[in-house]
Write a structure and sequence with these properties.
This protein is α/β, with parallel strands linked by helices. It is 46% helix and 16% strand. Strands 4-3-2-1-5-6-7 form a 7-stranded parallel beta sheet, sandwiched between helices.
Length: 195
């Protein structure tokens, strides 16, 4: 059951108002479905928009931020919970532990790194939680094309490529999360070790 979703997204707003609008739409769907938000703790950019909207609508928000980024990323001043941790590794581990699924919205290097790490953990069978892209205004189209190319070239298995859910509608994305079933990654690892 999905009770908490970790959303990875930019601490910048991006160049289109659509990104902030999409964050607010996702926030509304989360609150409507009774799902708590777990995120990086910033009060600015897309991060700030989704957290503030969830709070305004009466939802629960858990922010997690390394001590060294509290000033740089401008910590959100009024969350339900704020965890200040020592390192980025601690931040990502706690976000992963608390969440029942992971969504990447538009963002930069940090967003991409967080998504790929948690998706890799899923591939390795370290968790069975859904991972998805909220593909606002086609932001992730080039990445999806690359992933399809890497699959066609034999570097990503079709099973593992299929683990990443891509949707441009937040309601549909969460519906896919609800029915997600992780593949049996352990069998894949055993086969790889035999070769």
């Amino acid at each position: 059951m999905i009770r908490k979703i970790c959303v990875y997204c930019g601490s910048n707003p991006g160049n289109r108002p659509d990104y902030i609008d999409a964050a607010r739409r996702l926030a509304g769907v989360l609150v409507e479905k009774g799902i708590d938000l777990v995120y990086g703790g910033a009060g600015v950019g897309i991060m700030g928009a989704i957290a503030s909207t969830v709070m305004e609508k009466g939802g629960h928000v858990t922010g997690i931020m390394p001590e060294g980024l509290v000033e740089k990323e401008i910590a959100h001043p009024s969350l339900s919970e704020m965890h200040v941790v020592g390192t980025m590794h601690e931040r990502k581990a706690l976000m992963a532990d608390l969440a029942d699924g992971f969504i990447a919205m538009p963002g930069g290097l940090g967003t991409s790194e967080e998504l790929f790490e948690v998706w890799t953990w899923a591939q390795l069978g370290m968790h069975e939680k859904p991972c998805g892209l909220f593909n606002v205004c086609g932001y992730y189209n080039p990445l999806v094309s690359f992933l399809d190319h890497a699959t066609a070239e034999g570097f990503i298995s079709p099973t593992h490529r299929g683990m990443l859910i891509v949707e441009s509608d937040p309601g549909k994305l969460l519906e896919q999360f609800k029915i997600y079933q992780a593949p049996r990654a352990k069998n894949w690892i055993e086969r790889a070790l035999k070769n």
